[in-house]
Amino acid sequence: MLDNQDILFASLMGSRAVTLIQNANVVNNELAKHVLPVIPFLPLKNNTNVAVERGRAINVNDNWTTPNAIDQQKQFFPLSFSFKEKGVRWVFPYEPMINISSGNNIVKRNVAKQGENLIGTIKERWSRKDFDITVTGVLIGSIMQGKPEDCFPKDQFVQLFNFLKHSKELYVYSHPLELLGITKVVIEDYSFPFTKGENVQAYELKLVSDFSYDLLIKEKV
What we know:
The chain is α+β, with helices and mostly antiparallel strands. The chain has a domain at 66-103 and 129-212: Elongation Factor Tu (Ef-tu), domain 3 (Beta Barrel), CATH 2.40.30. The chain is 22% helix and 24% strand. The chain contains 5 helices and 9 strands; from the N terminus they run H-H-E-E-E-E-E-E-H-H-E-H-E-E. It has helices spanning 4-13, 16-33, 148-151, 154-164, 175-179, and strands at 80-82, 90-91, 97-101, 104-109, 122-128, 132-140, 170-173, 184-191, 200-209. The chain has a 7-stranded antiparallel beta sheet. Helix 1 (4-13) crosses helix 2 (16-33).
């Protein structure tokens, strides 16, 4: 069963998140039977039990609350940005979904009068494409309803935007990216779509991998 919080995240993250949420809940339930720590696949559950009276206004002093952020140690694949190689890292407060795609650039040549023994094209050379990385997630304020200055995750929003408007490469840290040798990215596109919930703001980032190249070749004497 999906509770209200699960449905909210499913609406923000897309239909595929429903299956992921259900699978994560099943796994967590099984792990709990063996007295193992629950693996936080997604920041879905609010451990605070809150009772709200019908017809009663919700305000800052009497309101549902959510964690300001999920601790990095409790995230499965935390993602963080840094302006410098060994600079201060900003960890995404809630673990986002990361999609990675790439491929090869192949130069093909069609040969005239191929005959039966020569099928298709001649592949002369190829090179590796950039890695295209899509990061989808949400920012969440600690107060669910109230004034914008109290509810909207403005601090998280400003911190993220400072990286997005950076005109140089960014250093990125996430286990799947490290396995692919990706340590630097550039921001290509980003969007903040309309999001239901006064304290929630979704985002989608389009990143492209960046690698250092030595274009000067020293001749051997």
